[in-house]
Design goal:
CATH superfamily: HUPs
CATH topology: Rossmann fold
Number of domains: 1
Radius of gyration: 15 Å
Strand order of the largest sheet: 3-2-1-4-5
Largest sheet: 5 strands, parallel
Number of helices: 4
Order of helices and strands: EHEHEHEHE
CATH architecture: 3-Layer(aba) Sandwich
Strand content: 15-25%
Length: about 140
Amino acid sequence: MLTIYSRIVVPYDHSELSKKALKTAMALARQDKKIELLVVMVIQPEVTIAYQQTNQREIQREAFGKIRSSIETELSVLPNRTRTFVLEGAPAPLIVDFVKEYDGDLIVMGSRGLSGLKEVFLGSVSHYVVQKATCPVFVVK
């Protein structure tokens, strides 16, 4: 049994690697039904004029709502307690702050997400989280 961890946080952006990270976290959680699984999605604000920003935000919220529903369906097969969250802001610091606030003791995340920018080894969000997180980070490639 995996009794070292009691609360696993999975940052999720619907990229292939975040899907793989979610499946990995679910496999870890299956080892002990006492492990809680928290999935966090972050809506990033766009830098546009106010009308476009409001319209874009609503489109993002609707899209994230659909993704959230599919994740909750996928998580329903687990005997574990699971929760999903949709936050708004800069993903990297929000994830680190979320983990602190919810006492996460393991983060399972993809090595890169949907961003078109590439770093040498890790995406910018995963790199930030690895550097700033107060708990272990399991990076899925």
